[in-house]
Amino acid sequence: MTDEWKIEPPDVAMARYEAEYQEMIGNARSAEESALELMCDLEDLWLSVAPGKTSDDFMKDVHRMFDYEDPDIEAMEAAYIETANTDERTLGAWPFIDTPIRIAYGHAYVASLAAIRTGATNMAFNEIQRASLWHGIAIGLSRTGARGTERPKSIADVARDAAIARNSENRAIKQSALDWLDEHFHECKSMDDAAARLTKIVPVVFRTARRYVTYWSLSRH
Predict the structure, then answer these.
(1) Helices 98-113/121-145 angle, 10° precision
(2) Buried b vs exposed e over 135-145: b needs ≥16 C-beta within 10 Å?
(3) Among the ranges 28-37, 86-95, 190-199, which has the highest mean pLDDT value?
(4) What is the pLDDT of residues 202-215, one digit of tens each?
(5) Cα separation of 203 and 19, whole Å?
(6) Angle of CA points 135, 42, 40, to nearest 5°
(7) How far is the C-alpha of 167 from the C-alpha of 2, rounded, in Å?
(8) The predicted structure's pLDDT at residue 155
């Protein structure tokens, strides 16, 4: 591996932080939308590194942690910082990488509550910035911890792919999906079951449908 690809996680984190914050401002998305989209992105990242885990596992293991247990996010940050001397490849592997993802999700969760329940926009955007920073740390570590001969994506590649995915989303289809979930989610056995049914209602693949279900679920808290 050449030096070109040896990007330190803090550098990647800052790049991700700046890219997400500028995109958020440029697109003039609401704090609620930004927080919920970031939470969906964090779920995707968690699923990409968690061995054998499903979206329902994420809701049970990560989301409900903030729904019911009210953990001290700053204490989680302080505990994680104490691992700073640990080899980055180790930190980028499961289960170590789980922690920065949870920290990022916690900040995004607080942001969503601030925006949805209290309308505290400034607080929400501050929490989104902190979530974006930890999201960047997690992405950087996931790239460092990735094993195999295939060349890892650069941060520019990651940002470009994410932008393409977001911009290609059809808002009308998404709204149709959310409307269907309002009416029929109670009939579904799980979030994965809802996503599978949704693929028969709107023209999207399962992964996109699962993101809609997650977005719908989070927006109802």
Answers:
(1) 160
(2) bbbbbbbbbbb
(3) 190-199
(4) 888 787 788 788 87
(5) 30
(6) 135
(7) 32
(8) 47
Give CA–CA dist 63/30, Å, rounded: 21
- What's the half-sphere exposure (Cβ side, CA atoms, 13 Å) at 45? 31
Q: What is the mean pLDDT of the chain?
A: 78
**What pLDDT digit, counting tens, does each position of 112-139 carry?**
888 877 778 889 999 999 999 999 888 8
Compute the distance between CA of residue 194 and CA of residue 178 in angstroms, rounded to an integer: 11
Rama region for 51: left / alpha / beta (φ>0; ψ in -120 to 50; rest): beta
For the chain, give every domain's residue range: 3-168, 170-221
> Is 121 exposed, middle or buried (CB count within 10 Å of its CB: 0-12, 13-18, 19+)?
middle
